Amino acid sequence: MCDVLQIARSTFYYDAQERATEDDVTEAIVDIFHKNRKAYGTRKIKVKLHERGLIVSRRRIGRIMKEQGLVSTYTVAQYKPHKTACNEATTANVLKREFEQTEAKRFVVSDLTYVKVQDRWHYICVLVDLFNREIIGHSAGPNKDTALITRAFATVKGDLHQIQWFHTDRGGEFKNQKMDELLETFEIGRSLSMKGCPYDNAVAEATYKIMKTEFVNQMNFQSLRHLELELYDYVNWFNKHRIHGTLDYMTPVQYRQEALKKVV
Predict the structure, then answer these.
(1) Which of 156, 211, 228, 263 is the most exposed place for a label (fewest CB within 10 A)?
(2) Per-residue pLDDT, 263
(3) Where would I find the Integrase catalytic domain in this sequence (predicted)?
(4) What angle do CA 185, 186, 190 make, to 5 degrees?
(5) Are residues 125 and 15 in the same domain?
């Protein structure tokens, strides 16, 4: 056939090899995209491809994603729920936007977000360790109250006395007698954002934006139990499999393990 078409055999073999390589890269990109909840863009896919021994430019990844119709969930516009009235407590902002922490559980931040279960609003609470952005506690329920937060604390592995400071916004569910009693019992310090300043709790806000995009907006929850099971599965993926740009493209668990190796 090469003789008939008057082309060199080397040209044919080169094109065949390039086609095979392109197919391998495309298959890998599609696999990584779907295994990571359709949340990864070109930057994170490039990192995961490198782990598989494939060196591919972000431009090429973007082209292949477009050809395969792979659209990251982050292209979808997000709905921002209204803010509730804040409390007027005199508790200081101890965190002061020092979001880069070098000690595990020195500062744990939290917030709540809205989730639709059939035709009724439910709520999710997560506790995030600023040290490695790991979700160390989580809960879901039909009411936006202190019980939701205490259930999240109940899922934390290890001794709650290890938590030094608990930082949140000024929502009433975070500053009341029951919360004060819980924090006092485990000798956990209290830190509140300044009034009307969401930037003081930016990591918690960013975590919920991620969860809305990668998890909540992709699901159709049929019951509270369904929400709880899916939340547990997502948190497990978030901590053990999702790479984070702020952690040098490691997972929260990997980052914590690497930090322990350095200490030893």
Answers:
(1) 263
(2) 72
(3) 99-260
(4) 95
(5) no
Report the C-alpha gap between 146 and 112 in whole angstroms.
Answer: 11
Residue 87 domain flag: no
Q: 134 and 191 in one domain?
A: yes
Q: Convert 45-56 to b/e letters by CB count within 10 Å (16 or more is b).
A: bbbbbeeeeeeb
Q: Are 57 and 117 members of one domain?
A: no
pLDDT of residue 20: 44
The three-class DSSP label of residue 229 is helix
CA 82-84-89 angle, 5° bins: 150
The per-residue pLDDT for range 85-108, each reduced to its tens digit, is 444 556 889 999 999 999 999 999
Q: Is 223 helix (H, G, I), strand (E, B) or coil?
A: coil
Q: In what order do the strands lie in the sheet with 134-141?
A: 134-141, 120-129, 107-117, 165-168, 189-192
| DSSP result, 171-237 | BGGGSSHHHHHHHHHTT-EEEEPPTT-GGGGHHHHHHHHHHHHHTGGG--B-SHHHHHHHHHHHHHH
Tokens standing for residue 7: 């082309």
Tokens 């975070």 locate to 174
If you count them, how many residues does the chain have?
264
Looking at the structure, do residues 63 and 133 belong to the same domain, yes or no?
A: no
State the pLDDT at residue 84.
47
Examine the domain organization and report whether 63 and 138 are in the same domain.
no
Residues 117 and 16 in one domain: no
Residue 158: domain span: 107-262
Instruction: Output the pTM of the full model.
Output: 0.72
Average pLDDT (186-210) is: 91
Side chain identity at residue 125, one-letter code: C
Is residue 238 domain-resident? yes
Q: Can you read off the two tokens belonging to residue 32?
A: 């990584």
